[in-house]
Design a protein that fits this description.
about 130 residues; 2,3-Dihydroxybiphenyl 1,2-Dioxygenase, domain 1; eight-stranded mixed sheet; binds ligand LZKTLF4L; binds cobalt (II) ion; isomerase; EC 5.1.99.1; MMCE/EMCE_epimerase; MeMalonyl-CoA_epimerase; metal ion binding
């Protein structure tokens, strides 16, 4: 069911500083910030040869990453995103296996304009998983 690793997301306390550091210290090509109000974050993608890094910064008062940054003030790896061919079939299989799908369980359009879902970190070894239909 899961395919390629689409991205690794890092929640950052200072988006400009994180972008400048990756560009200067790591020679990365850093994309432009994208506000994603439906998800409560501003994202920046860094394309790598085999996957992407997604910087996350809170957008709005009830951002879902606010709590994470309060617990991890220096930032940290927030989630990993796997690609799937059919996100509804994936959801049904996961629900049948007893996994929790976050939100109202319906896919939302993510930063790449594709449907995404999130699975509770406590059900997957402490790792927040995002699925993106490609
Ligand atoms: C534009 C879309 C973009 C894309 O790629 O397309 C995105 O990726 S949007 C990314 C931001 N959106 C989300 O993360 C949506 C899903 N996340 C959530 O619903 C919440 O963040 C949730 C439920 C994972 C955590 O909620 P909250 O921060 O309020 O903390 P809780 O107290 O409810 O957490 C319970 C438990 O889980 C631990 N936790 C929280 N976040 C993470 C995490 N990222 N990785 C691992 N563990 C996490 C938290 O510490 C609690 O553990 P406990 O042992 O009970 O303290
Ligand atoms: Co993501």
């Amino acid at each position: 069911m899961i395919g390629r690793l689409n991205h690794v997301a890092i929640a950052v306390p200072d988006l400009d500083a994180a972008c400048a550091q990756y560009a200067s210290a790591l020679g990365a090509t850093v994309g432009a910030p994208q506000d994603e109000p439906d998800h409560g974050v501003t994202v920046v993608f860094i394309d790598l040869p085999n996957t992407k890094i997604e910087f996350l910064y809170p957008l709005g008062d009830d951002s879902p990453i606010k709590g994470f940054l309060e617990k991890n003030p220096s930032g940290g790896i927030h989630h990993i995103c796997y690609e799937v061919d059919d996100i509804v079939a994936a959801r049904e299989k996961l629900l049948a296996e007893g996994a929790r799908v976050l939100g109202n369980g319906e896919p939302k359009i993510g930063a790449h304009g594709k449907p995404v879902l999130f699975l509770h970190p406590k059900d997957f070894n402490g790792c927040l998983i995002e699925l993106e239909q490609v």
